[in-house]
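Progress report, Aim 2. The chain analyzed during this reporting quarter is listed below.
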Amino acid sequence: MRLRNKPWAKDYIMENSTFATQNPKNYKGQWKNNVFKNNNPLNIEIGTGKGDFIIALSKKYPDQNFLAIERYPSVLVLSLKKIIAENLHNLKIIVFDAALLTGVFAPKEVNKIYLNFSDPWPKARHEKRRLTNKIFLDFYQIILQDKGEIHFKTDNDQLFKYSLTSFLDNNWKIVDYTTDLYHSSYLVNNIPTEYEQRFVKLGKNINYLYVQK
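Predicted structure tokens for the chain:
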């Protein structure tokens, strides 16, 4: 999908600091106390896109904290508008590169990580950019609490096979997985992304993986 630049996006994000946290490095180890003002579990979605998933999740679990992480302001601003309209105080956004996660979160600070339809980076030379590459799995090991969870969904079968192997090779506990989410018991609690809904209509299978630290 081609990313359309929105020159006004950065200013809009800066102007709405109630929901868009500025300078996230300043809150390492202090997200619950200083940003959300509570001691509720902290969950993050890496690669939020237009935000439908994380918004629905935060509404479903008002007693938990959620952070939507996206690298591109022009994408994240779409989520921000929806969050403002819903007045969701248990959900914040940050514009940040996931490659720098350990600079934003302290060890064991995060409860759950959601990875939804991440860029598959199919070429071998781009393997290090995949969010289920060993480099990122090591980051997740640091920031997740003991028995912390990762929930991963993708329509890309090759990325799913790669990711399953990557988690196994790096000593994660595979709790469960399916290569056909929409014909599994997990569909009951599934919250679809906008991308997911489009591919389901086309008859594409959706892969789902649930792992624990």
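The mean pLDDT is 93. The beta strands are 42-46, 65-70, 91-95, 110-116, 144-154, 173-178, 207-212. These observations will guide the mutagenesis work planned for the next reporting period.
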